[in-house]
Structure formats: structure tokens, C-alpha cells
What does this fold into?
Amino acid sequence: MFLGPPGAGKGTQAERLKADLGLTHLSTGDLLRDEVKRGTPLGLEAKRAMDAGELVPDAVVVGMIRDRLVGDAAANYLLDGFPRTIGQAEALDAMLAEKRAPIEHVLLLSVPREELVRRLGGRWLCRNCGKSYHETFAPYGGEPCEATGGKCDLYQRDDDRSDAVANRLNVYEAQTAPLVDHYGGRGLLRRIDGERGQDEVYGQIASAIQGG
Ligand SMILES: [Zn+2]
It folds into this structure.
């Protein structure tokens, strides 16, 4: 399980870890965006909350995760963006007890708030190929779009705009930071310094998982 604020790099590290360990990646952000795209009732409810930088209600998120977790008993999962509240963590504890599946590792990616603001505020996505760019760290250089061959059509997700960024970080601190104690108390939590370069962060993660 990855814990950490928005912008800490959970998604990037999760992609790499998933490929190396053959894990099934459950990203609530991706699952929710998929519901929004398909315009389901759950998606509409989720969109309203995400646009305002609020957390999607626990019942919606837990239901969505339960569908996936219960569906495949054999898989090893990587949870990214879930749980986000104590309520979700308790629901997860109950689901896992039912499946007799333990949580093996909880990795907390720590990044200072000023750095998160810098990272989140500059993110742009291509409407066509989905590729992500950043004003400071990975600016778009005019290269051809992988989907259309023309220029990428860049936009900012509503929840990446600056007022929504501040709100997302406040919500994280109020609702998700308490999970550090929830898992820390069980001796499962490992802190990862998310301010380093991507390879170094991944090295810390790999050694935490190998018990190093
Ligand atoms: Zn593109």
C-alpha cells in the first residue's frame, strides 16, 4: 500500500513496482476517472467531489474497491490512493480479514508541502494520448502526439488548478495523515523520502520491501 499526499509520486512508483513484482495495481484515482469518463451515477458523484478538491465519499470508494478485491482471490494487490480515511482503512481491514489476506507493506512517501504545490500546480495532460507534462520538470517540447501525430492538446485537470491544489493538500492533512498512526502502530509503516530523484525513491522502496 502506498500512502502519501497528492503529488508525492505514488502513481509513478506504483507503475514501476507493479511491473517488477507482477502486482495488480488498484488506483482509486484511475478507477474513479474511468467512472467519470463513462458518466455512471457513481462517476457523476465522484466528479462533483473531485472538482471541488474534496474526497469522494467513503461508501463510493469502498464499494468500487470491494468489487475488484473480491473478484480475484489469487492476486497480489498494490493499493494506491486507497485507503484515504480512517473509515476506508477500517473497511479495508474488514475486507482483508474476510479474504484472509494480510497487508504486507505500507509505504509512506513524504514530500514537503512547498514541493507538492510546485509539482501539482504545473501539471498538464494531453487530451488525446493522455501523456503528462510539467511546466518545470517535463515541459512539452512540441513533439508529435502519440495518438494523433499532430500537436498534443494540453489541459489542466480541474483538481490540478491552484485553489484545488491547496484544498487537496488540506484535505490530505486532515483526513489521510491519521492513517500514519493507524498503520504505524502495527509496525507496518516504512517512510520513504519522496523528495529524491525517481530512481533513488524506487531504491528506497525496493529495500523496504525486501526488509532492508
Ligand atoms: Zn498527445
